[in-house]
């Protein structure tokens, strides 16, 4: 699978359920910018059939290697980020997983049952992350049960495997000097920022500043009927050089913790 095909396909599927991303990209282009992608992110469960290393496989085959590791105790998540070995323009990949053993027997069983009821061959396919929700039509009852313990688990149950955001590389935008100018531009165009932990997460000292819009929402068909559920969001990242003069290429757990909340239905007031 060629990297170009893979990333184009990820983008097409992402924008199909995140119309805001397509709109933001085009209004930035209309201002005279070329839009580059800093990173994408993928969510999963730590079940051996779909854990981080399974999701990472196609990226490893493309020449990516594991870099940083991040722990999110309260959210019961663990994440790794991957960078391409020699192509410095290749987007970074951030993959997180829900730590099933940290949940009750009942929740653990609910998630394992969902995976058990899915055609097992799909988990072995290289393009699993192009497949979205690979299990049956969701049940609102299960969704709400998962939501009561983990927003991430509930989101994953409905959205499945995909890129949950692309990230604009703000350093490469011609008409903006910093992240707060980008945020002001987005707000003046009617987009709502995720303000959990402040609109800008991180700082120049931490070498990374990030912001994101709140996720779009799409109508989902549940067994019990239709309901609007958050889909994906767009992120904006500005990186500062470290001591060796290269731009910092990692992530910041304290900031990521708040960026995850861009899909939170409560922040959406829905
Ligand atoms: C990932 C959130 C973290 C970042 O850049 O720190 C993140 C997610 O929502 O799955 O993307
Ligand atoms: Ni991100």
Description:
The chain has a single domain, classed as 2,3-Dihydroxybiphenyl 1,2-Dioxygenase, domain 1, CATH 3.10.180. 30% of the residues lie in helices and 24% in strands. The chain has helices spanning 3-16, 19-30, 52-61, 105-116, 140-147, 151-159, 179-188, 253-259, and strands at 37-45, 64-72, 77-84, 92-98, 165-169, 201-203, 208-212, 217-222, 225-230, 233-239. An 8-stranded mixed beta sheet has the order 2-3-4-1-5-10-7-6, with helices on both faces. A two-stranded antiparallel ribbon has the order 8-9. β2 (64-72) and β3 (77-84) form a beta hairpin. α5 packs antiparallel against α6 (151-159). It starts with a helix and ends in an 11-residue tail after the last helix. The mean pLDDT is 97. It is an enzyme of class 1 (oxidoreductase). Its cofactor is Fe(2+).
List keywords for this structure.
binds 2-oxoadipic acid, 10 strands, single chain, 8-stranded mixed beta sheet, 8 helices, two-stranded antiparallel sheet, 2,3-Dihydroxybiphenyl 1,2-Dioxygenase, domain 1, binds nickel (II) ion, about 270 residues, alpha+beta
């Amino acid at each position: 699978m060629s990297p170009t095909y893979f990333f184009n396909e990820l983008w097409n599927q992402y924008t199909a359920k995140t119309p805001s991303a397509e709109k933001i990209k085009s209004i930035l282009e209309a201002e005279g910018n070329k839009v580059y992608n800093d990173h994408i992110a993928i969510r999963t469960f730590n079940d051996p059939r779909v854990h981080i290393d399974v999701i990472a496989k196609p990226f490893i085959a493309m020449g990516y290697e594991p870099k940083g590791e991040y722990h999110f105790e309260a959210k019961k998540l663990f994440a790794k980020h991957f960078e391409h070995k020699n192509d410095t323009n290749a987007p970074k990949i951030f993959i997180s997983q829900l730590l099933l053993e940290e949940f009750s027997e009942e929740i653990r069983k609910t998630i394992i049952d969902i995976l058990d009821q899915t055609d097992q061959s799909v988990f072995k396919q290289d393009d699993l992350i192009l497949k979205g929700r690979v299990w049956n039509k969701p049940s609102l009852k299960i969704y709400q049960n998962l939501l009561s313990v983990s927003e991430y688990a509930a989101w994953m149950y409905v959205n499945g495997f995909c890129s949950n955001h692309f990230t604009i590389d703000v350093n490469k935008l011609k008409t903006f000097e910093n992240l707060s100018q980008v945020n002001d531009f987005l707000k003046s165009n009617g987009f709502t920022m995720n303000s959990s932990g402040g609109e800008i997460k991180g700082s120049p000292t931490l070498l990374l500043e990030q912001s994101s819009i709140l996720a779009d929402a799409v109508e989902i068909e549940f067994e019990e009927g239709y309901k609007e559920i958050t889909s994906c969001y767009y992120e904006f990242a500005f990186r500062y050089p470290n001591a060796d003069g290269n731009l910092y290429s990692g992530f910041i757990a304290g900031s990521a913790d708040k960026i995850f909340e861009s899909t939170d239905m409560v922040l959406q007031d829905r």
